[in-house]
Specification:
Chain A: It is a multi-pass membrane protein. Chain A: The chain crosses the membrane at residues 40-60, 122-144, 156-177, 189-211, 254-280, 300-322, 359-382, 418-439, 451-473, 540-566, 587-608. Chain A: InterPro entries: MetI-like (IPR000515), MetI-like_sf (IPR035906). Chain A: Its main location: membrane. Chain A: Keywords: Cell inner membrane, Cell membrane, Membrane, Transmembrane, Transmembrane helix, Transport. The structure holds 2 protein chains of 2 kinds. By secondary structure, chain A is mainly α. Chain A folds into 2 domains: 45-66 and 390-618, Orthogonal Bundle (MetI-like fold), CATH 1.10.3720.10; 131-372, MetI-like (MetI-like fold). Chain A has helices spanning 6-18, 21-68, 77-83, 86-89, 92-96, 101-109, 116-145, 151-157, 166-177, 182-189, 201-225, 229-237, 242-270, 274-279, 287-296, 300-328, 350-382, 391-402, 410-439, 446-454, 461-473, 487-513, 516-524, 529-540, 542-558, 561-567, 575-583, 587-610, and strands at residues 69-70, 73-74, 146-147, 341-342, 383-384, 387-388, 476-478, 481-483. In chain A, the strands form 4 sheets. A two-stranded antiparallel sheet of chain A has the order 1-2. In chain A, strands 3-4 form a two-stranded parallel ribbon. Chain A has a two-stranded antiparallel sheet with strand order 5-6. In chain A, a hairpin with a 2-residue loop joins strand 7 and strand 8. In chain A, helix 19 crosses helix 25. Chain A starts with 5 loop residues before the first helix and ends in an 8-residue tail after the last helix. In chain A, 44% of the residues are buried. By secondary structure, chain B is α+β, with helices and mostly antiparallel strands. Chain B folds into 2 domains: 9-239, P-loop containing nucleotide triphosphate hydrolases (Rossmann fold, 3-Layer(aba) Sandwich); 244-370, Nucleic acid-binding proteins (OB fold (Dihydrolipoamide Acetyltransferase, E2P)), CATH 2.40.50.140. Chain B has 8 helices and 20 strands. In chain B, a hairpin with a 2-residue loop joins strand 12 and strand 13. Chain B is elongated and about 75 Å long. The two termini of chain B are 37 Å apart. The mean pLDDT of chain B is 89. Classes of the chains: A mainly alpha, B alpha+beta.
């Protein structure tokens, strides 16, 4: 019976001797193959975890050690000095410095209070969250409750911000809101005065809304679509007005998703970096921008401590949110979703017209926020002093052929981006698939594996970049010999770390939804676990794997935070870095480079969308 | 069947717990080579868990499982030489019918030599789907999918075939036709088969032995006829078919050769059982039965099948009121109210109003005795 069991082995040998020699050979080959396949998943898991330790946990630990090991001595001094410095923490810092509470509270309530860098960062994150929710909810209402041509396309576009490089969006906003931007051109044409939104908090908040409102819209739409129409109908039949039914039945099912969108927005915008760098400059610096500045000034200990304080706040917020979510999840089974209304009003009554008029106003605002930056960037890339021109693209080509070696070579940037994209994909894809497999199994400690594997989503690229720089790039002593990896390899590692969680997030829901009896059937038919994965599960989630790959590639192409840390002073710059270097002096070439980036990421997006982006677990 | 040979599958005190809940508790079963063995019971009785334990998808918390006398503890499902058919068939949607059936042959040679292709063809012909090899599983009907799943499970020549409610997604007529086909294939191949179903009628129709499961333990393991005629417990009596269950105190135990007490005039032990104000004569079970040693003062629970209740009989007569009737075609199931108890009567000629029914003492079967 039990062919390969330990108990059956002796009996097998007896049987084999009576069989022909060739079939005995075959049997042996099969047994070797089976035993390799049996250990394959464990082997891959170990390799993945080792890699994760090497390119994520070790660098992050390096950063931590940097902040507490100063000049060979362990100290909490750096943390303490940051927390007691009103420059960072605002008035509350004085409390930590031991000043009397009364005076601090008085100062905090006075109009010229200081928020400090951390306080300001939280303040702009809160404003951005409000703006994102305000801009996202009408979109959710439109997407969940109305039927119109292009609705599906619009719905899938809500995933686009995940792949749009933030530095490119920054360029778009400069092209829109800058002194010579499209907004001023429109205002001028209308005979109105000029505005200069650049380097203001408003521009940063709007750019953050551009990024995060689609996320709010996405999660809220999903919740709205899973509201069961019969629950609303029951409420109505019991005497509730439409508004009352919405308040009592629909809204409670939307709150958790709105809160999730808001919580994620706050965390994302709290650690914002490229947007502020492009739109705010150092006068609107957030924590992350300061960390970057400290790294540039070679103040590694202070940079590390500040980055860790930021990470602590982000993780604390995420944890609080997850705790809340665990307690307040509404289990809704959308057996029959609410019917969608046509966008064209069926009658001219106030009840039909009013919400549609509201949506029209919203559409104008949405066009200005979501479409204008991209359109302005494309327009700016094609315009010069004498109208339409390809001069900006010509500049890129000329710079390539005539530029000095210290200048940014455009083609090198494109080539590096593609190279790092492909290389980091080669790392992120298998990692992501293995982690997806590990996190969709039932075993003790699965939650720990999930948390360990998903942590990179919460840690900013600056920290990873800094850790890789201080560790692997500067070199590590291992058993007397010094190991150092090149900047390029470190960039690939950082991109892989940034990208693989997206592979996990696309592949895991697919694996989760596979009927477990398919795997069990395969195993009963003789397939070892790894073979069942290869033969049954992976082919069935193949579209999700490709979508995850496109995600990882797009993330790598657009990655800025870690790359800017690792690429400084090297020639390993990528397209986003090139844009950042152009942006201050030459907006034209920056927009032209932005368009190139847009084309590459749009292609990735189309791939994601075609192949199951709807299942992304966000 | 040779009951002395090593059982094909043996469960020895198997317990499976999930946290606090016990899905299967101290279960011992012995399934002979080549028999069609059915686990039947209501949902949650542990029958599917038992099957999954045998297949190796779950590990017992306690106890051991042996195949042909050898322990399979720790042996993964792929090495157990079992074929499994699930309720939803679990056909691989990205493979053709032929590829599905041939999948198991990537891990073992076709039994009896020959090529993989020939084996696939052979199995598809066995289930009457010879022309379907290139079809997509999605394009098949439920019954055809079920047969593909069956062919796929049988292709590598497993020692044991495990069927987990393979018919429950099909309509009644098809289910009846397929269960005959499954039984024929099983007998043609002589393969040990363990079948899980919640449908007691299906269990009785196809099995050599039936284990009636309740709360993770078997209440009775016996051939179908014994299960139906001599249920071991009240649960078995009411789960398998309709039954009338009555309990009362024994007022007398007597031996009789009175031809009126039982049709054939042989000697029979009879207990007089008082239920409320009525007294019934109930034939005692055989000596081997633990409920047989009855004495006065015991509390007896016995059952009488609805089709054994006779209208206007004078033996063990009781007068009841008809409350409702369900016309089932061949017979009618009549619901009676007898002093607040609901009784069932099966008859071709349903009475109305007040009716007197009775039963022969040998038509009663004792399921429980409390001294």
């Amino acid at each position: 019976m039990a062919r390969d069991s330990d108990g059956g082995a002796a009996k097998d040998r007896g049987e084999v001797s009576t069989a022909t020699a060739s079939s005995a050979n075959q049997e042996q080959r099969r047994r070797i193959r089976n035993s390799v396949e049996r250990r394959a998943i464990v082997g891959l898991a170990v390799a993945t975890i080792a890699l994760l330790l090497g390119i994520f946990y070790y660098p992050v630990a390096t950063v931590f050690i940097d902040s507490v090991l100063v000049e060979g001595r362990w100290t909490g001094r750096v943390f303490v000095s940051i927390l007691q410095d009103p420059f960072y923490l605002g008035e509350p810092a004085r409390l930590l410095a031991g000043e009397p509470a009364g005076a601090v509270i008085e100062a905090f309530l006075s109009p010229d209070r200081r928020l400090g860098v951390i306080g300001f960062t939280a303040y702009q994150a809160a404003l951005s969250t409000v703006a994102s929710v305000a801009l996202g909810l009408p979109a959710a209402y439109l997407l969940a409750r109305y039927e119109f041509p292009g609705r599906r396309t619009l719905r899938s576009l809500t995933i686009l911000p995940f792949v749009l490089p933030s530095i490119m969006v920054g360029v778009g906003f400069v092209a829109t809101f800058g002194r010579n931007g499209t907004l001023n051109a429109v205002l001028g044409a209308l005979g109105l005065g000029q505005v200069d939104l650049l380097f203001t908090l408003e521009a940063v908040v709007i750019a953050h809304a551009f990024y995060n409102a689609p996320l709010v819209a996405r999660v809220t739409t999903a919740a709205w679509e899973s509201v069961d129409a019969s629950a609303v109908e029951t409420a109505r039949s019991l005497g509730a007005s439409p508004l009352r039914a919405f308040r009592d039945v629909v809204a409670p099912q939307l709150y958790p998703s709105v809160l999730m969108g808001a919580a994620l927005t706050f965390v994302f915008t709290f650690s914002t970096f490229p947007i502020v760098l492009a739109l705010g400059g150092f006068q609107l610096a957030t924590v992350e921008v300061f960390v970057y500045r400290l790294i540039r000034d070679l103040e590694y200990a202070e940079a590390a401590a500040l980055a860790l304080i930021e990470l602590g706040i982000s993780l604390g917020l995420l944890y609080a949110y997850l705790r809340y979510e665990a307690k307040h999840t509404v289990q809704s089974r959308g057996i029959r979703p609410l019917p969608r209304r046509p966008l064209r009003p069926p009658s001219l009554s106030v009840r039909e017209l009013l919400p549609r008029m509201g949506l029209t106003v919203y559409a104008v605002v949405a066009l200005a926020v979501f479409v204008a930056p991209i359109a302005s960037m494309v327009l700016a890339s094609l315009s010069g002093p004498e109208g339409l021109t390809l001069a900006n693209y010509q500049f890129l080509i000329d710079r390539q052929t005539t530029g000095a070696s210290f200048q940014v070579q455009p083609w090198d940037a494109v080539r590096n981006s593609l190279l790092f994209g492909v290389a980091s994909l080669a790392v992120a894809l298998p990692m992501g698939v293995v982690v997806a497999v590990l996190t969709t199994r039932d075993y003790r400690g699965r939650k720990v594996v999930d948390a360990v594997a998903m942590a990179p989503l919460a840690v900013s690229g600056i920290v990873v970049g800094l850790g890789l720089l201080r560790g692997l790039v500067f070199g590590v002593e291992v058993g007397g010999s010094r190991i150092a990896v090149g900047g390029g390899l470190a960039i690939v590692a950082a991109h892989a770390v940034a990208g693989y969680p997206f592979v996990v997030r696309t592949v895991a829901p697919g694996l989760e939804s596979i009927d477990h009896t398919l795997v069990e059937s395969a195993r009963a038919l003789g397939a070892p676990r790894a073979r069942a994965l290869l033969d049954i599960e992976l082919p069935l989630v193949w579209p999700a794997v490709v979508a995850g790959a496109a995600f990882a590639f797009a993330i790598s192409i657009g990655e800025f935070s870690a790359t800017v840390v690792l690429a400084s002073g090297t020639n390993q710059f990528t397209m986003p870095i090139a844009i950042e270097r152009f942006i201050g002096r030459r907006l034209g070439p920056a927009t032209a480079m932005g368009v190139v980036l847009l084309v590459v990421t749009s292609a990735s997006f189309l791939l994601i969308d075609r192949l199951g982006g709807d299942d992304v677990g966000f | 069947m040779d009951r002395t040979s090593t059982p094909a599958v043996e469960l020895d005190g198997v317990t499976r717990r999930y946290g606090e809940t016990t899905a299967v508790g101290d279960l011992s079963l012995s399934i002979q080579d080549g028999e069609f063995f059915t686990l039947v019971g209501p949902s949650g009785c542990g029958k599917t868990t038992t099957l999954r334990l045998i297949a190796g998808f779950e590990d017992p918390t306690q106890g051991g499982i042996r195949f042909g006398g050898e322990s399979v503890t720790g042996v993964p499902p792929e090495d157990r030489d079992v074929g499994v058919v699930f309720q939803n068939y679990a056909l691989f949607p990205h493979m053709s019918v032929g590829e599905n059936v041939g999948y198991g042959l990537s891990f073992t040679d076709p039994p009896g030599g020959g090529s993989d292709e020939a084996r696939v063809r052979e199995l598809l012909e066995l289930v009457d789907l010879g022309e379907m090899a290139d079809r997509d599983p999605d394009t098949l009907s439920g019954g055809q999918q079920q047969r593909v799943a069956m062919a796929r499970a049988l292709a590598p020549g497993p020692d044991v075939l495990l069927l987990d409610e393979p018919m429950s997604a099909l309509d009644a007529k098809l289910r009846e036709r397929l269960r005959v086909q499954v039984r024929e294939i099983q007998q043609e191949l002589g393969i040990t088969t363990i079948y899980v179903t919640h449908d007691q009628e299906e269990a009785l129709a196809v099995s050599d032995h039936v284990a009636v499961m309740h709360d993770g333990t078997p209440e009775q393991v016996a051939p179908p006829r014994t299960i139906y005629r001599e249920p071991a417990t009240e649960f078995v009596a009411t789960f398998v078919g309709d039954n009338n269950v009555l309990s009362g105190e024994v007022t007398a135990v007597r031996s009789t050769d009175d031809a009126d007490d039982n049709g054939d005039g042989s000697e029979q032990s009879i207990a007089d059982v008082t239920v409320d104000d009525a007294t019934f004569s109930v034939a005692l079970n055989g000596d081997s039965d633990p409920t047989a040693a009855v004495s006065s003062g015991d509390r007896l629970t016995f059952c009488v099948r609805p089709e054994r209740l006779a209208v206007d009989a004078d033996r063990n007569a009781l007068t009841a009121t008809v409350t409702s009737a369900e016309f089932l075609g061949e017979t009618t199931r009549v619901h009676l109210d007898w002093e607040g108890r609901e009784l069932l009567l099966r008859t071709e000629d349903p009475p109305t109003g007040t009716v007197t029914v009775g039963f022969a003492p040998t038509d009663a079967h004792i399921v429980d005795r409390q001294p």
